[in-house]
Amino acid sequence: MYPMELYSFCDVTWLFFVHISMEYLFTFWACFMLYKEYDRVASMRLNFLASQGRRAEQFTVLIRNVPHVSGRSVSDSVETFFQKNHPDHYLCHQAVYNANKFAKLVRKRNRLQNWLDYNQLKFERHPHKRPTRKLTMERQQILKDPKSVMSAAFVSFNSRWGAAVCAQTQQSKNPTLWLTNWAPEPRDVYWKNLAIPFVSLSIRKLVISLSVFALVFFYMIPIAFVQSLANLEGLERVAPFLRPLIEWKFVKSFLQGFLPGLALKIFLYILPAILMVMSKIEGHVALSVLERRTAAKYYYFMLVNVFLGSIVAGTAFQQLHAFLHQSATQIPRNIGVSIPMKATFFITYIMVDGWAGIAGEILRLKPLVIFHLKNMFIVKTERDLEKAMNPGGVDFPETLPCLQLYFLLGIVYMVVTPILLPFILVFFALAYFVYRHQVINVYDQQYESAAAFWPHVHGRIIASLLISQLLLMGLLSTKEAANSTPLLVVLPVLTLSFHKYCKNRFEPAFRKYPLEEAMSKDTQDRASESDIDLKAYLADAYLHPIFHSFEEVELVEVRVDKNQAHVASPSPSELSSPSPQYTYHHEDEPSHTVQHYEVEQPHTVYHYEVESPSNVYGYDSEPHYQYYHY
To answer: How high is the mean pLDDT of the chain?
Structure first.
């Protein structure tokens, strides 16, 4: 080798070693920060659980796949089993009712009630069409029919220690029976999926996994087509009559810079809703789990379609065919070659989707438009207005995957094309301040997961590190420093070892509740609150909210004319329903009570006298109404 060529070769090799050294530096820095953050989040979770007051989910375990015993109800089987196997700590249980049909009727009743409120002086309904009677019949049928009781129950214990032992141990010799898990908090329960038979859950998960795989690759077809529009030569070949228009400077800049990112945003707009439906079909019983599973699906979708789909040329099936027929070692090589060439596209995508998305989040343009549309076409009553103005919670299924995608872009391009990093840093700085403001001042908290999302976030950041390392190896293998790529082989091994250590060290705090913590909290409660009736506190905590919120309403015939109007009013005496297992007696009160209510409507005042037997308050007692018009 000539001296000049040798000098040039050594100079290029030195530059490649700089890239490799920076990859090591960034990896070690990321792992160090991940370790500190995992330790901090795990400590915050345990401190939060220790500082909480008495909550129903701390004492309650969800039991599924209760075995059927001939001649016994599910409730009897649960009580017998836990009195026998947990005699010192079993307190009570709440059977799970299949109330899905009843919930549909209640939603229908609420819609009709809105129309009734809106058309109060014009609306007319005949007695044989009264939805309240159907509601009452369906409710009684659910409570009295043994078939409506599912093979599941919420079992409560008299101590956190007892609940922790039950939730984290195997209850039967047959591991498929008496399956136990911590109960979600009552706000977090997705009641509809509790009615799904346990046997069908595995089949559902398999079908949904195959459906998500197919959706990912079929969805790449329209995205790849729109991405090809950015290639002006291909567009001119397909539509030569557009050549004069394409040659305009403004049109060319729009097609090459703005259109691809905008097209991706449009195609991904409805995707989270589709993936949420798929997660619900899978059968998860907690809203937090549904959002975590939807976020996982959306992240995989973004990884394949936005990241890999934007880098690899060709349609989805061409990419799949190439991946299946080429050597596995060639995949990182082929993708690595394309990464530097797509840096400009991702800079545009970050500005169009990231920066503009954060600006839209602080302005809340999307909720503002949706609110005005609802206010124009849907809102009829004050109840509708309250629903339309509800800000909801943070949209985790869409927000988390987007943040993780931008972190992946930063990790991949920090060594290959560092010019991308300032755009990533600006995005994360804006996201921090905006979402911090929104969480504190705008959104309503839907449930409390106690940082249960963090292990999934940690795992995807580790996956981003591995992807960046493999793609850098593929890129260097195409250059003159191919012999230096073995130096990068150590990095994936070290990264996986670090992930395994963190999983063993910190993840149990997110999956289990230490018995030491449970016993300490129980001891504190016994010392400070010895007179609390825990059984009464837990009796109806996990009763289906339909039974809690349902009001006994008789919709009587509504006649509207110039002189009089007869309307029905919900009974305020039953704002919440007791558990179906209990009937309350008050024998020391008079045999009847008469309650007076006045409801003001425009130009009309209605006076109601509600007469109901006061010695028994249950589901069979119905108040009588007398109506007076003033």
So the answer is: 75
